[in-house]
Every structure is written in structure tokens, then in C-alpha cells.
Amino acid sequence: MASNQQTEMHPSRWGDPARAQDLPEEARGLVELVFGTTDRPAVVDPPLAPSAIDPAVLAGLADLLGPDHVRTDDQTRRLRTRGKSTPDLLRMRSGDVSDAPDAVVRPSTHDEVAAVLALAVEHHLAVVPFGGGTAVTGGLVARREGFAGVLSLDLVRMKRLVAVDHTSMTATLEPGLRGPEAEALLAAEGLVLGHYPQSWEYASIGGFAATRSSGQSSAGYGRFDALVVGLTVATPRGRLDLGTAPATAAGPDLRQLILGSEGAFGVITAVTVRVRARPTTTLYEGWRWPSFTEGAAAMRTLAQSSLLPTVIRLSDEGETALNLADPGAIGGEGAAGCLMITGFEGTAAAVAAKRAAVTAVLTELGGDPVGEAAGEKWVHGRFDAPYLRDSMLDVGVLVETLETATFWSGVDRLYADVKSALTAALGDPSIVLCHISHVYETGCSLYFTVAAKEADDPLAQWHRAKVAASDAMIAAGATITHHHAIGTDHKPWLAQEIGPLGVSVLRAVKADLDPTGILNPGVLVP
Amino acid sequence: MASNQQTEMHPSRWGDPARAQDLPEEARGLVELVFGTTDRPAVVDPPLAPSAIDPAVLAGLADLLGPDHVRTDDQTRRLRTRGKSTPDLLRMRSGDVSDAPDAVVRPSTHDEVAAVLALAVEHHLAVVPFGGGTAVTGGLVARREGFAGVLSLDLVRMKRLVAVDHTSMTATLEPGLRGPEAEALLAAEGLVLGHYPQSWEYASIGGFAATRSSGQSSAGYGRFDALVVGLTVATPRGRLDLGTAPATAAGPDLRQLILGSEGAFGVITAVTVRVRARPTTTLYEGWRWPSFTEGAAAMRTLAQSSLLPTVIRLSDEGETALNLADPGAIGGEGAAGCLMITGFEGTAAAVAAKRAAVTAVLTELGGDPVGEAAGEKWVHGRFDAPYLRDSMLDVGVLVETLETATFWSGVDRLYADVKSALTAALGDPSIVLCHISHVYETGCSLYFTVAAKEADDPLAQWHRAKVAASDAMIAAGATITHHHAIGTDHKPWLAQEIGPLGVSVLRAVKADLDPTGILNPGVLVP
Fold it and tell me: Is B477 helix (H, G, I), strand (E, B) or coil?
């Protein structure tokens, strides 16, 4: 795997530049009708201020890593500036590169990471661990004040499959592996990780762990935090090696402090994950439900009967209607209601058995099967939404997502409250869509997508909507994020969610592992 | 539920005094043959030193809780002295009550617990949370030096079912509920928790959480830490309310710091757990395997095929042979090899389907079904082993257990190493038995039972064996405990398992939540 040859994203867009496209003509008509359109070309390659880091310190880093792995050129720094939230893209499109790191360093081993941290402590440089750069909650926007500069610690050279244990079905992966790279290495061993968040094509193993990511197949394979067996972490105070057994009662589970720590407690340098045999059969299909409530109740029944498919997701009426721009896909003309996708992965026998059991339950509950075409359509488009967002931003339509989770008894209220908060804050014309894509015995996630005509200050416009939605989540007793982490954007609500004493514990752990506070300052810890 | 009417255990024995018995005559012959026997009567009701706590402080506690709930009489204090490990029993049998608390307080609400903690901080009293008193690793033996006395904080009055959410399938339980009491309250709602450790008849909900307990049905219902959705904790610095959603990416999971914290970070005052519908069908049966290795491989196949029964356990050749004292139970005369118990709980249809799938796999792998009698025998005797231990101690035979866990690829080595360490340390005559009772996709637990003729100093004798076994576990890369917690006994090995930086994090959390160190001092944190 040629680790330095991978596709870089454009600083102000998602994904492979070759896959970027204008809004398709048929969609443009609809968008024009609903929102009106205004061409909004981005500022291309905004220039950066010179690196603030003392050249002698840069020379020290170069001595450590080799000169090729300490970069201060504008393009490298620009590509490590912020993440891929809509506010991130809007800032970059407007030419605001004020959060650019001063240098990008690329260690290739745990010991090199540790050495970079030691040097950063010595010279009081802020350190921002960088994996895929797909953060959407400000996790790459470190506080600069009080530091002698900001280092982006790019894990791009740490892409090894360190170990595979076919008996225990575990694999140890380095943090810089992107989703497809990790799966390719595992596939060569007949294995699969099965973690497919929408950011999968770019996001990294280290990032999955640091943000408690959840993938589209979470019902079958588990959230990423549930897949993690062990972690190795470099901190300014030394090394942590955690995870000695499949389960233990040896005190608090310290892995769970590192999972979700977003680079603020240490740099994850290896992740041991549970792996499975590669599926030999995959099958995705659609079901139609009269209402979101009935579809959600069916998901709950499956979850509470230990009968979950590998993938299960349910779009609300609005999101379903948008999918129905191609009505053939889910049952032809007149189709309405809510679309559910179920997916099954495994051996042919396991897929057939699970599918039969799921079909029996969904049929009994009033679901209407609409066939495999709907499932295949979802599978083939499942990583494309961020490209569409770019196309919408190009024509002056603000598109963004947010998500939350709650217990089943609170889902109806949470859905109504967040939707109405967003609608009220965004004003007309705007649309708010929702789906459920992660379900558990006790509850589920809600994932909202919004689109609105861009106001004169789209950042302020979105900020109002985000605050309203977040306040509604906390008021409903839900979590501020099911799988997007805290970053800088969610900090005010994290403090409400875990309370002042919870915040105090996070600060105590941070102070212990990172006494001078160089690790991703301003991120996660309120 | 008459919370003050519950059966108290005898200070130096397990369980209901009415169920205590001499070693059965037929077993006594075997024991005599292997070990020789010597009657070892216990010191009855050893006298205590007077309470060291200032009467004015006791009066303050009585003002807080009512005089009936602040006890300093010998018998109440004696019954809160240490736990139920064999060393605990040996000390008590010899009349050593040096670890007795100075007073026993019984708050009935979270606020009363918080008030007790405030008063303890003010007067620098050590506080030992007490649930069922079934600790086996020294979790109730707080350090006395430097404190103005030791308070046993008995949660016996906190036995409410606080809330049930039938939609989300969660229940909020108070910590003082013993296993059967919790199940009785849930049964009235048509629900089951499904957590049955061997200590179930006495152990408490708070203790399950504080020690990361695992029950005999863990394959079906999950370890206790996996059942916990939310926690409320009283600490000297205030209240923690954790667990807002079925899953979240809102930073590190702080619940996982409280689970396994053994009263050293706070007092758990409520636990919200995932519950299930009560099973309508239960079925337990036996399988015979030619060897422990083959039986373990079959367990691994089931775990890695998502085909686990509710209960699955496998005795090694020695433990199986001991069960064969009644050869009719598992397949008649000449039966040998290793006995596996599988248990299925759920609806009739779910039990039938799972049992058929499991039977197909086990048959394919060479297992020999030996029928339901073996399963029923196990079910009916599954909480009895601690009574047998008392009977063995009565005749001068040391009996104790210890347990560990590792990944599948390390099971053979761990089994051999721990067994030979124990055998070598205990010398002749001794026997070392083992079973696997908790299995996961990536590995399993090993639970050892040993019996040896008591030496002149049985505490020293056991200590040597425990050290040898624990060293072997750590050398093999396994965990020092799969489900018995750290207490005071496992602290040296915890430091090896999580490393000096892991210890530092635990100390930082402890210092933050309990700045004056009153909570279970000396327990858990190295």
C-alpha cells in the first residue's frame, strides 16, 4: 500500500476531486423551485500566514522524523485545516484559513509519536492528531492562544496491519489506515471489520476510536467502541497499553476513557479490533411502512427480539419522499410512507435464516416488502451524500446534518422537538429530514439532514439552528451526539449532559495524562 | 418487601445458617481418603474492640439517619467485617475481627448517603459501602490508619424498584437489592434481569455494578457491566448522573469508570439496567466432550457464529470426574471426558430454534449429548458450592476459587500455567479443577477451584498459591480477574495489568471525586 499516494480531499470540499460534480440537471430544477439558487464559487486555495513555529524547533522535528516529514508549505497545511462540517467548508470557501496548523508532522511509529509529543511539551506546541480529516464537530480546531504554534500530527504513515489472531478473531491496526485500506488488508486474511460510517472512504481507524464512530452496519457488527478490544496510546506522560482480555473485572475500563477522547488525552497509535469472517452473501432490501412511528416500532421489536439484520435504517416521510424522486425504486407510483432498508451479511445459510425470521416479524407488524432494488440503490449511493452537499453549497443552499440518540420511550418527543427547533430556526424555505440508522434494545439514534436557502451570513444561520436543535436534545434528555463526537461544537452541551462533576473528572484525567495541556487544546474538555 | 427481615449470613460462613450442614457422609469418605480430615471448629462470635468513633460524631449520624440506623453493637459490626473469600472466613474462624467497622450506618436515600459522606469528610472517617457482603477479593477491608474510624455504609434500606420503562426495556434499581429481591420486583412486571452469579442469593445490585460481576447466564443476558444503562453516584464532591442514551459519542464513557470502582470513587445509589421479558421456557442439558480442548473449541465456534445459548459452561476432566461421583447424571458408567452444560431461556419458539442450531453445531463438532438430567442437576445445585466450602473448612480442607480470562489463542497456555502454578504451590495432597463459564467471540474465562489439606498456617499456604497463580496469569498476558474485582488482594497485579500510567489515571480520578480519600481507602487503587 503506497501510503503517500492516497487521494487528498480538496480543502473546501468532500472526497475525491474527480468525483465532484455540479448538481445534476434534474435535481437543480427541484432545488431551484424550493430554495432558489445562487452560484457560490469558493475561494480557491486561500493563502496562509507563515508558520509561527520557530525554525530551530522545526529543525528539531526534522531531525526526529526526517525533513520530508515536517511540512510547512501552504497546501499541506491547508489540507489539515479543520474538518468537513458545513461550517468548516463555509469558512474555507470564504477564504478563512485562520485555523491552519503551523506545520504538519508525519511520524511513522509509536516511538516517533512519543518523541514528537516530548518535543511539543518542551516547546509548548499544541498538537492536533490528524487521521482522515473528516471531523464534523470541530475536533481539528485546536486553541492557538498560549502556544508557540500548532502542529498537525498526521498519522498518514501509520498504516500497518500489525497483527492478526485468527483463533481469537482479533486484528491490530495502526491509526492512519483509512476505512477501505483497513478492509483491504483484512480481506487478504479472509476477514472483515464491518465498520462503514458515511465518512468511511476517508476516515481513519484512529479517528473511529477517538470519536466513538458508528457505522451503517452497526446492528450487525456493532459500534466501533464495541469492536475495540485493545488500545495503545502515546501520551506526554508515557504509554498506555490497554485491553488484556475479552472481558475483565480488573477495575474501571480505562479503554472507555480513551475511546471518545478525541486526541485530548493521548494519540492512539494502535487499535486491536474484533474481526469477523468475510461475508459470502450480502442482501439488501426495502420495506415500506405507513408511518415513521410504525416503522420505528418494528425496529424496536426486532432489537428486543435479538433479531436485528446487519443493516437496518428507516427514513421518515420527508426523507422517503425525497428518495421517491425515483419512484421506481421503492414500489412504484403512489408509493409513500416510510422506507426501511434491511441488509443481511454472512454465510448464505445465516443470511437466509436471519432474513426469514426478520421477514416474518416485519410482515406480521404490517410492513410492506418493496424488494431488493431499494436496498441496492441505498448500498450504491451510501457514501455519496457529502458530494451532493458540495453541489448544493455551490448553488447557495445550506445543507448540514446532526444526530442524537435516546431511549425508545423518548423517540417520538425527541423527533418532534428537534425537527420543530430546526424548522423554526431555519425559517422558510427549509426542509428537515430524518432517519433512524442505529438501533439498540433500549433505544435508537435519530439523524437529521437539513437544507435551507443560504442567508447572508450562513454561519450565523446554521449556528442558530444548531443551538436550537442541541438545546432541544438536552431538554428531551437525549445525548448531544450518537456518533459525531464533541469536538469544539458540542462542548456546551456535553457539560449539561455529564454535569459539572463529569466535566471535573474529564479535566482530572486530562491533567494527569497531558499536564501542560498540549493535546488538542480546546477540544472535548469543557 | 421487609427490608430488615432478610437473612443475615454468619460472620464466618456462607449463606443461610439454616442451610449449613456437615459434609455429607459419602463425601466425607472421599475427602478423608484424599486429604485426611481434622475437625476445625470456628471461634464463635469473637468479641470486638469498642467503636473508635467519637460519640459526638455517632450522635451526628443518628441525627441524620435516626438512631435505629447507626449501629455499634458487636454483632452488627461483626456481620459487616470483611467478605466471603476463604482467607476472610479463615480469619474470622480464628477469631480475628481486627477489620471490623466501628459503626454501621444505614441511609435510605441518595441524599442520606450524600449527607453521610459529607459528615465522614468532616470527621475524616473511612467509608466502606456494603451491599451483600459477598466480596471475595478484600473489597470490604478498608485501611484504618490515618482515619478517625471506619464506617460501614450499609445499603440494606435502599431496595426500591425506582422506575420501569416497558417500552425501552429498562429498570432503575436501588443498590441494596439482593439478586432474588431484584428479580422478584421485576418478575411482578413480567421482566427479568438475568444476572445470576454464584453469590446471587446474597449479592446486591450495587455490588454487581461496583465489581463488574458476571453471571452464569452471561452468554445470554450479558455481563453486568453490559446490562448497565445508567448510574447515579454519590461522591464527596457531589452527584454524578450518567447514561443519557442507549449509545453515545459524547466523549469518554464515564459509566465505565464507576463500573468496577468498588466504592473507591463514590457510592452507587441507583442503577438503570436493561431488562428482558421473562422467559416462558427454560431448558438445560449436558454434552460430553473427549477433552477440555475440544469442548473449548466448540464454545469458540458457537461464540464466533453468534449462536450462544443463554448458559454455556464446560468443566475440565478433573471437575467432570468430581461431578461423576453421581455417574448417573451425565451418561452413566464409564462416562469420562468433559461435561458441558448448555441452557436456553426465552419463548418456546426461540428456545427451540436456538437449541436446534446449537445442537447441530455441537453434534458436528463431535459432542455427545447426555440429556437434560445433567442440566437440571447443575441448575439445582448452582448456588450451593459456598456451603460445601464451609463443610470442607470444618474438616480442615482448604477450598478456594480464583478466575481469569484471556483470548482464545491463549487459553491452553493460561490453563496449563495457572494449574501447574497452583499445584506446585499447594503441594500434595491437593486438587485443582477448572471450568469455562463465560465465553465471548474473542476469548473466555477460566475459573479454578482448589482443595488442599490445610497447613498449619492456611492463610500463608493460600497466599503462596494465590501469588503463584496471579503471577502466572499476568505472565500469560491474561487479566487478574474476570469477575471478582480488585479489592485489596489483586492490587499488585492490577498495577502490572494497566501499567503505571493506568494507575496514575485511577489515582487522578480518585483524587478528583474523593479528595480526602475517605472512600474505601486501600481498596482498588494501587
Answer: coil
Cα dihedral sign for B91, B94, B98, B104? positive
Q: Which residues of B touch A350 (CB under 8 A)?
A: 305-306
What kind and span of H or E run contains B426?
A: helix B411-426
Distance from C-alpha of A176 to C-alpha of A160, rounded to nearest angstrom: 8
Rounded Cα distance, A227 and B175, in Å: 30
**B205 vs chain A: nearest CA distance in angstroms?**
15
The mean of the pLDDT values for chain A is 94
Using an 8 Å CB-CB cutoff, list chain A residues near B513: 501, 505
Q: What is the pTM of this model?
A: 0.96
Tell me how far apart the alpha carbons of residues B451 and B471 are, in angstroms, rounded to a whole number.
20
Chain A: residue whose CA lies nearest to B475: A244
Q: How many CB atoms lie within 10 A of CB B34?
A: 16
Cell numbers placing A127? 498538537
The pLDDT value recorded for residue B330 is 45
What is residue B18's predicted lDDT score, i.e. its pLDDT? 87
The per-residue pLDDT for range B480-503, each reduced to its tens digit, is 999 999 999 999 999 999 999 999
End-to-end CA distance of chain A: 39
* pLDDT tens string B82-94: 999 999 999 999 9
* A217-271 confidence digits (pLDDT tens): 999 999 999 999 999 999 999 999 999 999 999 999 999 999 999 999 999 999 9
**Nearest CB to B512: which of A250, A445, A505?**
A505
DSSP B98: T
Q: For residue range B82-126, what is the model confidence (pLDDT) as tens digits?
A: 999 999 999 999 999 999 999 999 999 999 999 999 999 999 999
Q: What is the pLDDT averaged over residues A375-386?
A: 92
In 3D, which of B277, B2, B114, B407 has the Cα closest to residue A306?
B277
Residue of A nearest to B307 (CA): A350
Closest by Cα among A278, A271, A265 to A208: A271
Distance (Å, rounded) from C-alpha A339 to C-alpha B196? Answer: 41
Contacts of B453 (CB under 8 A, 6+ apart): B35, B36, B396, B397, B398, B429, B430
Using CA atoms, how far apart are residues A235 and A267, in angstroms rounded to an integer? Answer: 6
Of B344, B412, B442, which to mutate for an interface test with A (greatest number of A Cβ within 10 Å)? B442
Contacts of B249 in chain A (CB under 8 A): 211-214, 260, 479, 481-486
Q: Name the grid cell of B357.
A: 442450531
A150-154, strands of its sheet edge to edge: A70-71, A103-105, A150-154, A126-130
The Cα of B410 is separated from the nearest Cα of chain A by a number of Å equal to 9
**Which residue, among A195, A240, A244, would best test binding to B if mutated, counting the most B CBs under 10 Å from its CB?**
A244
Q: How confident is the model at residue B6 (pLDDT cuts 50, 70, 90)?
A: low
CA of A191, closest CA in chain B: separation in Å?
Answer: 13
CA B302 – CA A467 distance, rounded (Å)? 47
| pLDDT at residue A30, as a whole number | 84
Asked if A513's CB is within 8 angstroms of B250's CB, the reply is: no
Phi then psi for residue A270, to 5 deg, are -160, 145
Q: In angstroms, what separates the C-alpha of B57 from chain A's closest C-alpha?
A: 28
- Compare CB distances from A242 to B244, B498, B524 and report the shortest one's residue: B498
Give the per-residue pLDDT at A6: 63
Question: Shortest CB distance from B481 goes to which of A249, A483, A512?
Answer: A249
Nearest residue, CB atoms, B168 vs list A253, A274, A409: A409
pLDDT at B188 over 60: yes
CB contact under 8 A, B254 and A497: no
ipTM confidence: 0.96
Query: Minimal Cα–Cα distance from A304 to chain B, Å?
Result: 8
